[in-house]
Amino acid sequence: MTNSKMNPKVDAFLSKATKWKEEYEQLRNIVFDCELTEEFKWMHPCYTFETKNILLIHGFKEYCALLFHKGALLQDTHGILIQQTENVQAARQIRFTNAQEIVEMETILKAYIIEAIEVEKAGLEVSFKKNTDIIIPEELQTKFDEIPALKTAFEALTPGRQRAYILYFSGAKQSKTRASRVEKYIQPILNGMGLND
User: Fold this and answer.
1) Is 70 exceeded by the pLDDT of residue 190?
2) At 1, is the pLDDT very low, low, confident or very high (cuts 50, 70, 90)?
3) What confidence score (pLDDT) does residue 129 get?
4) Adjacent-strand bridge partners of 38
5) Which terminus, N or C, of the chain has the lesser number of Cβ atoms within 10 Å?
6) Distances (CA, A) of 187 to 24, 145, 149, 184
């Protein structure tokens, strides 16, 4: 299938894919039927509607998935959307482990994609839990006091990135472990990067 709207960067991504190649291609064909614009963001095929991100296709060791950016707002009538980790507030995945599953779910997938487009058209937003319910660990606060630029850089990060860092730093039981975790991520924070970038 050739489609004039196919993005050459996605073609290159697919040609290099060793795992999930067939699955990616099937997902791509399904998405194309839904009139989205194909882009390549965050090293993955990403599909947009009027420049708004709707979904992306990505793969992991155990599965490949369609990731809906505002999946939390979908009805999920089939109960197939998965929250990747408890800290993910908006995005939801539909996971696949083989091409056959995708073929069998094609009509359901299209319905979910169309619903995701409708959510965007309606201008619906996920109401994120505010970061005010997160306590900044003392060790991070100490570094903020020592390096004002660190505090500025941290506050410039997206709420999700801030949250991920705070949960990671606070997750250590001992103060010295928390301090060494903070130390390790000073440079990435200054570079505007998230924990998993």
Assistant:
1) yes
2) very low
3) 67
4) 47
5) N
6) 35, 16, 11, 7
Would you tell me how many other CB atoms lie within 10 Å of the CB of residue 196? 7
Give the structural domain span for 99: 8-121
Other beta carbons within 10 angstroms of residue 122's beta carbon come to: 9
Q: What is the DSSP letter of 94?
A: E
**Minimum mean pLDDT range among 107-116, 118-127, 128-137, 176-185:** 128-137
156 shares a domain with 73 = no
**Listed residues 61, 90, 121: the one ending a domain:** 121
DSSP letters along 3-67, please?
Answer: -TT--HHHHHHHHH--SSHHHHHHHHHHHHTTTPEEEEETTEEEEEETTEEEEEEEE-SS-EEEE
E-assigned strands of 37-171? 37-41, 44-49, 52-59, 64-68, 92-96
